[in-house]
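User: Here's a protein and a ligand (2-phosphoglycolic acid). What would the complex look like?
Assistant: Let me lay out the input and then the predicted complex.
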Amino acid sequence: MARTPLVAGNWKMNKTTAEALRLAEEMLPGLQAVAGVEKLVCPPATALMPLSALLHNSGVALGAQNLYWEDSGAYTGELSPGMVAEFCQYVIIGHSERRALFGETDADVQRKVAAALAAGLRPVLCVGETLQQNEAGQAAEVLSSQLRAALEGTQLSSAGALVVAYEPVWAIGTGKAATPEQTNTLLRNVVRPTLAGLYGEAVAQGLRVLYGGSVNAANAADFFAMPEIDGALVGGASLKADEFVGIAKAAG
Ligand code: PGA
């Protein structure tokens, strides 16, 4: 089944609104020139409104980096699914930095995925094992348990409604990417079968599964050559227009 590749940039806590606009303007022509690939940028929350105006009808989608599951109320500092959906098509959920630095649990991630879907957003659900878990041979177990915890009991209207990002924690921001072959094997033997267990084989084959962790313009093509890898979630390299456009080109 043909899955349209998705190249997503996670800008994390970088760029003021003015800087974010400049970066988006700089990369937009290059991204628009890449056909057959879905492109997505996820700036900090303060930049969502101006970027949604810039990117409207541009062929580049907009995503948030987080949300809270309640619709409104006394939740200081949080953004509701409806607030995010006002500007975005996508939302990153369960990034390892949120899990490790902000105490997000599997149960939180489950609520956030369900709330995002209910608001019409497409979650980019992040899963991945730590170095310690990897070295203990627990990658497969961690991935399937994170996926099941995040998705069990949540229905999908279609395979396009959700994106999964496999991000081994040890590969994020380290310059030490996983190998494309190892990644492909994990996606084929663990991620897709787990998704098939939840949603059936047809949906699992239609869902996009990204790789994330030290992807750059030089190594992206090797990942995208793998049949199970449907794109990338890019951190550091998404803050440089030429790098991010290079990654998008490699997916085309
Ligand atoms: P990185 O980050 O590309 O800087 O390794 C990836 C991510 O955290 O999504």
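Summary: The longest strand covers residues 122-127.
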